[in-house]
Structure prediction request, 89 residues.
Amino acid sequence: MDVSTVVAIGKEAMKITMLLSMPLLIVSLIAGLVVSIFQAVTQVQEMTLTFIPKIIATAVALVFLAPWMTKLMVNYVVQLYSSIPMLVK
Prediction:
């Protein structure tokens, strides 16, 4: 196994990690932005108000995205494990 193979495997792992994390982070960001705008408009400055909507939004997004995320992870692991014999040469 040479350096370019290791770099390619690492690059693909980082790409999968970004694809898995970005939808949840974007949903959390949007929920936080909406709550912040609501707090600014109503002048309610409660610190704990931001956590519950973000947790709920992230959980809902996770429920809807879980099949896609699982499929993506399983495909990557199957591809990685099936390429082991070629990498060990």
